[in-house]
Amino acid sequence: MFDRYEAGEQAVLVHIDFSDDSSKEDLLELQLLATSAGVNAVDVVTGSRSAPHTRYFVGSGKAEEIANTVRASEADVVIFNHSLSPSQERNLEQLCKCRVLDRTGLILDIFAQRARTHEGKLQVELAQLKHISTRLIRGWTHLERQKGGIGLRGPGETQLETDRRLLRARIKSIQARLRKVQKQREQGRRARIRAEIPTLALVGYTNAGKSTLFNTITQSDVYAADQLFATLDPTLRRIELQDVGPAILADTVGFIRHLPHDLVAAFKATLQETQQADLLLHVVDYSDEQFRENIDQVNEVLDEIDSDEIPQLMICNKIDRMDGVEPRIDRDENGLPTRVWMSAQQGLGTELLFEALSECLAQNMVRHQLRIPPQEGKLRGDLFNLNCISEESYADNGDWLVEIHMPFADWQRLAKHSEADLDALIIENIEA
């Protein structure tokens, strides 16, 4: 009933400029998304409004223009660079006599094409089911009446209600399987924490060059392409860093402005690789004119998934496309690396990146001796859960004396959520 368009279909793209900055989208990004989905954009309809129209999202005149463009170009699908309500999609489909997709539906379709692993496919299906659950009426308008006939009388349940019930059951089943995957990932992370192996996570706007950088650092052959959302499933590799030893590098899904909330929720298990990282490598395509806006969008998503307090090292990538820019390390007033200018594709500045990573991680661990009173039992449990205790003993008055060794990000997170004043419990700072 829900016919997804196929690669090579003809599409009319619709982009509306709003006066409100929070509602603005990028037309070039829509074209890149359409190309990534394998759609051939035959025409683009643009316009401007102060606010969306309740019936068609655009005005009635612009809606007629879109319908005429569809007929003239014999397009198979209309793709909006905005989020549409289910009723707006239905009204536009009735007017245009073809499939209408919004920005969220397009991104979901790209994700469905890219998913390779079992986990990735489950996550995409979960996001898709949540998205179409409000749009079931489109596929089942001929089955709104209650069931009837021999063998079908009784429950008084319409086909729509049956489908909604089946959808809810499927969503619950997928969520249960993803929780199992999440537990498996958590076990792997605990093993790395026990072994005191730091984790680095590549984050950044989609198509910033994360997978190319990942391949350069780890000598891997992860799929990398000049298209949006080339990477969907997370990949982990072990690397060796001077003065630090082994570390785990994780390649993650790229972010995009107005990333659908269903996707953020569905990819929770994947994004936990980012949440639990000791250092985020924020890859930025500095040859992109909108790199500042892209940086802001990535930081917004990091804030949304509670990863905004994790230390970042910015990777200023694709300097081979810029004139007069050489590989270098930018440092703060304390001499610590803040930016590495490089080209992952050309291999320029790779040795500088390894130097910066070693410096960041060497100072990114904290060692403290704590004196914890008996009434702070919850804090004691939290420390055991973090597997950060290297030595412990008891004072004569019953206080717990403990030496901890943990990533600075975990220490900050613990200090933020703990009711105890951790700084007041420190007896001694131990040099690493």
From TrEMBL:
- Domain Hflx-type G stretches: 198-365
Q: What is its main location?
A: cytoplasm
Which Pfam families does the UniProt entry name for this protein?
GTP-bdg_M (PF16360), GTP-bdg_N (PF13167), MMR_HSR1 (PF01926)
Q: What InterPro entries does its record include?
A: EFG_III/V (IPR035647), G_HFLX_dom (IPR030394), GTP-bd (IPR006073), GTP-bd_M (IPR032305), GTPase_HflX (IPR016496), GTPase_HflX_N (IPR025121), GTPase_HflX_N_sf (IPR042108), P-loop_NTPase (IPR027417)
Where's it found, cell-wise?
A: Cytoplasm
Kindly give the SUPFAM superfamilies that the UniProt entry links to this protein.
EF-G C-terminal domain-like, P-loop containing nucleoside triphosphate hydrolases
Q: Which residues form a coiled coil?
A: 164-191
What are its cofactors? Answer: Mg(2+)
Q: Name one GO molecular function term.
A: GTP binding
Q: Work out whether the entry's keyword set contains Ion transport.
A: no
Q: Which GO terms describe its cellular component?
A: cytoplasm
Keyword Cytoplasm recorded: yes
Keywords, alphabetical = Coiled coil, Cytoplasm, GTP-binding, Magnesium, Metal-binding, Nucleotide-binding
Quaternary structure and interacting proteins, as annotated: Monomer. Associates with the 50S ribosomal subunit.
Q: What does this protein do?
A: GTPase that associates with the 50S ribosomal subunit and may have a role during protein synthesis or ribosome biogenesis.
Protein name in UniProt: GTPase HflX
Q: Which organism is it from?
A: Paraglaciecola polaris LMG 21857
